[in-house]
């Protein structure tokens, strides 16, 4: 089944004001019956409450808490450069969906599962990723000539896959399949409710968009 006939996939940068504006525009334009967000329940609740654990609270949760805190700090630093707090496009999507009466679905893998998989990554990949992530804390300025995500993301994802095959599989491929399966389930559920042409907007990271669209568009992977 080609689920993509019923789904509008919106790829975003999680720290981009332009992404937030485009998400709101697409949801209002498409008037979907459901909006699927690249979040799990814990991240959704944290987003709604605005609570971000401090270093002490995070480190009390052990290695996974420390890793989550470090990754959040990397995103915060990027957000300072791009002018938007991480995940604001997801908040805007949820608020817009609620204002239009669309159902909200959380389609991402549990963050605790993701973190446990990352902790099991090969030591080489973890060390390389840590060193590269630390570079975002160095002073730098971005311009349109420095970074164009819509133009360059395919190159960046290919390089990331080559440098970090295990982490790429965990962060991208496995989540692509899970999110595509959950989006397909949303479409089927709406059809069972009597909607012949259900409309679903899926708001996911830009790096996930090609893979998820391929799976929804008759992808051959198991389960779709």
Provide key terms for this protein.
224 residues, alpha/beta, four-stranded parallel sheet
Structural summary, described in words:
The chain is α/β, with parallel strands linked by helices and 224 residues long. It contains 10 helices and 4 strands. It has helices at 17-30, 41-49, 55-59, 63-82, 88-99, 111-119, 123-134, 149-163, 165-192, 209-216; strands spanning 7-12, 34-37, 103-106, 200-205. The chain has a 4-stranded parallel β-sheet, with helices on both faces. α1 (17-30) runs parallel beside α5 (88-99), α4 (63-82) crosses α6 (111-119) and α8 (149-163) packs across α9. The N and C termini lie close together (7 Å). The model is unreliable at 78-83 (pLDDT under 50).
- Write out the strand line-up for the largest beta sheet, numbering strands in chain order: 1-4-2-3
| Class computed from helices, strands and strand pairing | alpha/beta
Average pLDDT number: 81
Number of helices: 10
Beta percentage is 5-15%
Q: Give the low-pLDDT segments.
A: 78-83
Work out the number of β strands. 4
Distance between the termini: 7 Å
Tell me the series of helices and strands, N- to C-terminal.
EHEHHHHEHHHHEH
Note the quaternary state here. Answer: single chain
Rg result: 18 Å
Q: Can you summarize the main beta sheet?
A: 4 strands, parallel
* Portion of residues within helices: 55-70%
Global geometry: globular
What is this structure's SSE topology?
Blueprint: E1 7-12, H1 17-30, E2 34-37, H2 41-49, H3 55-59, H4 63-82, H5 88-99, E3 103-106, H6 111-119, H7 123-134, H8 149-163, H9 165-192, E4 200-205, H10 209-216
Parallel strand pairs: 1-4, 2-3, 2-4
Helix pairs in contact: 1-5, 4-6, 8-9, 9-10
